[in-house]
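If your schedule permits, I should be very grateful for your opinion on a structural question. Kindly check, if you would, that the fold set down in the C-alpha cells agrees with what the sequence suggests. Thank you for your consideration; the sequence and its C-alpha cells are set out here:
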Amino acid sequence: MGLKLNKISKDFGKFTAVHPLTLDVPTQEMYGFLGGNGAGKTTTFRMILGLIDSTSGTITWKGKSLNHQTSHLIGYLPEERGLYPNLKVKEQLTYLGRLRGMSKQNAENEINKWLNKFEIPQYLNKKVEELSKGNQQKIQFISSVLHDPELLILDEPFSGLDPLNIEMLKKAIYNLKTSGTTIIFSSHQMSHVEEMCENLCILQKGRAVVQGNLADIKRAYGKKNLVIHANANLNYLEKFPGVVTYKPLRNGCELQIENEDISKQIFSSLSSEQFIRKFELEEPTLNDIFIEKVGAHYE
C-alpha cells in the first residue's frame, strides 16, 4: 500500500483545476505523472504535500492521511526552483534539512555524502549563485532527498543538465527506488518517462485522459511506427492507405500506420528491384500517444 488519491478535486472559485482524480501508486515504484502547462500537475502535487486542501476526495500514504504535518515523509523537487542565491551550499542544505527534522550533524553528513556522489564536494562553501545552472540543479535535487523521504516527487529533475549529468542523476534516482523510495516522476521529455516508468497518468485540463500500465497503453493505442531506409523514392507512401503520418528522412522515411497489417501491404508495394536497407516496425512512442491525447493543448 503506497500513495492513494481517491477522487480528489480542486476548485478555485468557479474554476476546476483538478477534476475527480483517482491514482494508486504502489510503494517502491517510479510513477509517471504528465501533462502540458496548466493541466493540473502542480495543483495535484500541492494537495499531496498538504500545501493546499483538496475540494473533495482523500489522499493517503500507506493507509494514513497526508497533510502538512506529515510533510517530512515527502521530498519535493519543484519545476520552479527555490534556492537562496546568497547562501552557501552547506548553509542552504543544512537549513532545509533542519526544517525536515534532521539534526545538524546528520544533515552535514548527508550533505557530504551527496556532494561526493555528484562529484561536487568543492562547492560545499560556495554560494548558490556562483554555481552553474546544472550544479544548482544538483543542489536542488539534494535538498529534496537529504532527509531520506519515503515518497519523492520529481518535477522536471533533469532541467539544465547535460547528458553526462542526466545519467548521473538517473543512477541516483534508480538507487533511491531500489532502496525503497516511492517516486512520482514528471517531465516534458517523454523519452525519460518511457525509460524510467512502468505506469503513468496523463492529465489534460485537470482530467486523466490516459492512465495505467505503459505497455498496455501502447498495445491499446493500436498504431505503429514504421521506419524504411531505401535507395528509392518513397514519396508515394505519404498517400498510401492506412498511413497516418509521413516524415521524409535523408535516406528513407518514417511512417505512423494504423495497424501492423498496413506494414505488410507497404512491404509488398516496394519494388523487388529496390535495395531496402531497413524496414523496421516499432511500438508507438509515449510522445506519439501524448501528442494525440493532449494535442494543441501541449506547450
In short: The longest helix spans residues 163-178.
